[in-house]
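wait is this the right file?? whatever heres the structure
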């Protein structure tokens, strides 16, 4: 019927379609004027191959890693992209089938092999994916593409060539680390991952990778565990996607989305399972906030609690007058948001996409405030005395501190997500601006900013890759906006479609 409401970007499904890599950089058509000082590369990564032969990948986080680069120089722009030569990709290309199990797609033993070798393949246990489609970040002088497993992939940011796969387990006691490390001005890198702690119970380790070394050795070889957070459940770690860092503290938010490790270890080797199959929600625990000091790394044994939410991205955290202010992009409830990011859901018609988003957890930007100085006597009273926030922290009779947030932004099924701040200047410090991508029922269709709330903030400009899926000519472009008022400065259009990208960085 003609009254069907189409999303204005009706072809949004095209961002979930496979594309070819480029043999060489292609020139972009620039309109507007790119500032002369803006010289460098915008690097992004995301899924670029959504099936191998006739075998589809099922989840948004399964497509094979494709690295994108916009080079800016003297007002000119080129665009280039290449698949990262991970083991997952190289073996899939060689065998023309999915060989390594991805986040939401199970790989099965080769049907052409005989029954004994197939049987044996099952019992070899877990082959963890190195499909580094989530982010790119520098360690020392090097650049790494990553996902959330123990494997990161060293890449050349100029040629986009794949250099080598690095197993962090060779240097650190972690099962994997997040794709959102924090970096200090001197180049020190911090990250968090879960691990087996004392007497086989689970914990979360903050790891520290030192800055570039004088002797030109690899900083990863000198990495170490700095501090350990306990797990609320002995055999079920919470899923962790990012963490917070202030000048003197680490903030770890433990949500009710759990990984059932027993299921992960047993069913994986006996019958085909993938990562998504091993998530479950603890509908009783709510959300716990943990703090640790940075130097020296020590866990602070205060029990901060609040109601259940999913968390993927921290916006920023900072210390102020004896409090830690924690700004987060939350999704209410304990139902796992990734359950709604299967490609079949994302590719549905707009009406169906909207229906699914009605059932999904609702997004909300929140500010929590954690008091550092906690006095057991002050039961029932709000411990937060910062004048500019309505967030509260109340001591309960059991010694826990109950947190209620200040809501910074809330719109039904409208998320402010993938937040960015002027990181170099304001990470861990009191700040004024955050920028983010507007998700409309999970479809990214706007750029916004929160005052006192896929973009990179760099010296007063924002950069975002924009696609116009319904258009045949120049369907994608790099958009450069003024960070102060979000007016357009320039755009650089290319004649190829660009699939969805997840994260990235600007390399001056």
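ok assuming it is, sequence goes like this
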């Amino acid at each position: 019927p003609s009254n069907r409401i189409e999303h204005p970007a009706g072809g949004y499904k095209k961002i979930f379609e496979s594309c070819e890599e480029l043999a060489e950089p292609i020139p972009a058509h620039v309109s507007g004027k790119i500032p002369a000082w803006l010289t460098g590369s915008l690097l992004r990564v995301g899924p670029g191959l959504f099936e191998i032969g006739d075998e589809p990948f099922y989840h948004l986080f399964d497509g094979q890693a494709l690295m994108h680069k916009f080079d800016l120089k003297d007002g000119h722009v080129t665009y280039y992209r290449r698949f990262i030569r991970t083991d997952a990709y190289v073996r899939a290309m060689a065998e023309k089938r999915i060989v390594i199990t991805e986040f939401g797609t199970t790989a099965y033993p080769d049907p052409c092999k005989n029954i004994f070798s197939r049987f044996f393949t099952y019992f070899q246990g877990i082959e963890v994916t190195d499909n580094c489609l989530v982010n790119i970040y520098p360690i020392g002088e090097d650049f790494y593409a990553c996902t959330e497993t123990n494997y990161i992939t060293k890449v050349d940011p100029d040629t986009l060539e794949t250099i080598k796969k690095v197993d962090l387990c060779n240097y650190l006691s972690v099962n994997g680390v997040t794709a959102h490390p924090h970096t200090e001005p001197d180049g020190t890198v911090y990250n968090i991952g879960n691990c087996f702690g004392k007497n086989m119970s689970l914990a979360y380790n903050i790891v520290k990778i030192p800055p570039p070394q004088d002797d030109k050795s690899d900083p990863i070889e000198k990495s170490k565990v700095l501090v350990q957070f306990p797990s609320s459940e002995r055999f079920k770690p919470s899923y962790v996607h990012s963490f917070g860092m202030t000048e003197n503290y680490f903030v770890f938010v433990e949500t009710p989305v759990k990984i059932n490790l027993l299921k992960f270890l047993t069913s994986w080797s006996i019958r085909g399972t993938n990562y998504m199959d091993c998530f479950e929600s603890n509908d009783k625990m709510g959300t716990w906030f943990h703090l640790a000091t940075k130097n020296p790394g020590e866990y602070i044994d205060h029990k901060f609690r609040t109601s259940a939410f999913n968390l993927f991205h921290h916006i920023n955290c900072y210390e102020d007058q004896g409090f830690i202010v924690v700004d987060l992009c939350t999704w209410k409830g304990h139902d796992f948001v990734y359950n709604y990011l299967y490609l079949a859901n994302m590719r549905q018609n707009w009406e169906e996409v909207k229906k699914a988003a009605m059932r999904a957890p609702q997004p909300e930007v929140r500010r929590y405030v954690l008091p550092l100085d906690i006095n057991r006597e002050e039961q029932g009273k709000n411990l937060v005395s910062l004048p500019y926030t309505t967030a509260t922290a109340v001591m309960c009779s059991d010694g826990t501190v109950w947190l209620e947030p200040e809501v910074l932004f809330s719109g039904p099924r409208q998320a402010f997500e993938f937040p960015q701040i002027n990181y170099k200047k304001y990470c861990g410090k009191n700040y004024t601006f955050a920028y983010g991508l507007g998700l409309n029922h999970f479809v990214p269709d706007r750029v916004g900013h929160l005052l006192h709330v896929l973009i990179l903030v760099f010296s007063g400009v924002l950069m975002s890759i924009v696609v116009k899926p319904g258009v045949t000519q120049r369907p994608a472009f790099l958009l450069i906006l003024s960070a102060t008022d979000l007016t357009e400065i320039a755009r650089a259009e290319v004649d190829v479609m660009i699939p969805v990208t997840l994260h990235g960085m600007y390399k001056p």
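The two ends are 51 Å apart (CA to CA). so i think its the right one actually
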